[in-house]
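Q: Structure for this?
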Amino acid sequence: MEGPKRRQKILIVDDSEMNRSILVDMLGGEYDTIEVEDGLKAVGVLQRQGAEISLVMLDIVMPEMDGFGVLEVMNQRRWIESIPVIMISAETASDRIDQALELGVTDFISRPFDARVVRRRVVNTLLSSAKQQELEALVAEQIIEKEQNSLLMIDILSHIVEFRNGESGQHVIHVRRLTEVLLRALMKKTDRYGLTQERVALISEASALHDIGKIAIDDKILNKPGRLTSEEFAVMKTHSLAGANMLDGLSVHQDEPLVKVAYEICRWHHERWDGRGYPDGLKGEDIPISAQTVAMADVYDALTSQRIYKPAFSHEEAVRMITNNECGTFNPLLLECLLEEADTLQEELNGGQAHVRESQKHVLDNMADKFSQHAELSASNRTLQLLEHERMKYSFFAAMSKEIQFEYTISPSMVSFNTWGAKALGVDEIVMDPFNDPRGRKYLDGGLGEKLSDAIDTTTPDDPIVTLETKMSFDGTMRWFRFVMQALWSDDEPAQLRGVIGKAIDIHSSRSYLENLERRASLDGLTGLLNLTSAQKQVEARLKESPEGKYALAFFDCDFFKMANNTYGHLFGNELLVHIAGKLHQTIRSGDIVARVGGDEYIIFFAYHQELEPIIRRMHSALNGEDFRGFTISISMGVATTEQLGPNFKALMGAADKALYAVKQAGRGQYLFYTGNETSLKETEEVSVYANQSEIIEFGSGEED
Amino acid sequence: MTLQECYAILGGDYAEVSARLPSEKFIQKFVLKFLEDKTYGLLTESWEGGNDEEAFRAAHTIKGMCQNLAFNTLLASSSALTEALRGGRSPEAPALYEKVLADYETTAGAIAAYKEQL
């Protein structure tokens, strides 16, 4: 970093080297200068380091792009509002001067240059714009902070919540906000944890992932109304480690700070201060502060929200329970924060819009605060350092985020890119007339250009932002990109489209990340077979594709499974389930859909073209009668077909279940086809086709946190 | 030869320039730099190549330099040529171009002689 003697930077734009030199010599003692010889290069410098530039001295008659061209671009991009321009042309015609004034020029220095005049004008212009720039820097900081909210995270969550129902959506939002409130309070209290604004934002962001491991937990346990048995609770407790393992198993994003923090939170958000939590029994400060805070937020929100098994407690009641260690012990400092932030937390409780208003208020307060500190600022070094800091920060995040940022203006037709984006695309930072330039056409031809224009055409001045996910040729391959664009409409009546700003984010790897998670979520954790939800999706898709096809659904379970569990232990039970799944894999054909749909219940869904009975007999005998470590596997199987029931998954399941029930009545170890004459089942059993109550694995008793 | 005498030969206004620019040394530096400036070469090249737009810009640039250095003789002819080239080559442009060439020779000659005996 440069020392406090930071100097202001002046961009001198003139095609005459001698004129530039004269100005540099006149100013050089007091300012840093950048010289360029044409308008296009000037725009390039402003694009790259606009925040550093305190003043532009601009000639009019120049090759490539003249001074008026530069002024037009500066107006379109609103740079003119923060960077003053002094014209230094030999032009004296009054209409040209009027034109320049209209375009926002601050001052003129006519030739011949007078050293004192030049210096005085420069000093005056710089002084009058410095405060404006400080204001702009403050606003920019707020915008950048908001920008950092990772889209990736929100994607993952909304995706996972799709797989699970109920409270999670709200819970995730609450925990995130509560975590933020607690951490901010903690940050004020101590610097022991090295908390910064960025760190707090990161942890809050990652907190949303604290329960992702729950997608590995059986629906029946997860959504069980009423208390969990102790065995069910033991299964429930595996979610913290399961979540951590999911993150650990990711091949991409491993090194992202976000993923690292999310790992801590997933794994340790059920640890407790006294070491009596799970899964690792960590104690005190051995538990990362991220996990400690999320743990408290999680408990607080669970207490104050209504759940299937309990009513919502009031804020006071929740705080009382937490401070009395009724939900495990917490870091005393965090308890203090909880008590001190009571008002904020209550406001959070009162609902959705409150925290939005609150955070806006924070932003405003924060700005007002900064203003009062800086009101005395003149064109000081501090201003420049702030600006430089902003610029560095912005380009840092832009580079980190690997975003292609662009700005397109219709007149003149030109697009400019951030440094990273230009490099990634292999183009200059400024491309004139991109729809005709071969460098632009390389990307825009083949449909992308039209897609982007179509997307922009859907915007209006009131709703100028549009998002588009599409493939783009990149680095020799087609990759998925998300374009987020804002159309720039003029203030005229009717509004004119002036251009577009936007960014393109490579979402190829996050798509595969999501696909990976989705795949994990669609599989049964124990056997690797599909789970009920995803089997249903696939079967229904198949039925929709060819509703006339002949399909059969075989629904079977393992007889005496409960007894095997009780006699040989649960580990044996699990191994038996895995063994059956393995056998099943050998038995089916590649197009068949197989799933584990409950404790020991499986389904096979397949198309058949010949007689059905021999196929079923073969499947049944492949599974039935085998000796597994002294336990004879007996399979009861009910079969229903679309010939009987039409292309309806639920009807098939219900009918096959009835047939299965008939097998049970008839002495087990066989298969039966649905006839419609089965003994009718009790109402409760009818709705529980997905969880055959008579055979469900029994767990002990316990409770979810 | 002093810088003042050089100005007298090339038809410049030394009093005016020394009132504007910080020091004699400053003026001397840029007067000498005028010899190395490539704009004159650009003017003759683009004129002969028929590139009037570039010739206009070159004449304009020369005019600007002359303004700054108060080279009034060359300033007058380059100004006139600039206007004669604005928006295309006008009928009087060739004569004005010849005048610029002659004035440039005088100006550059005077500076070269001045530089010689430094």
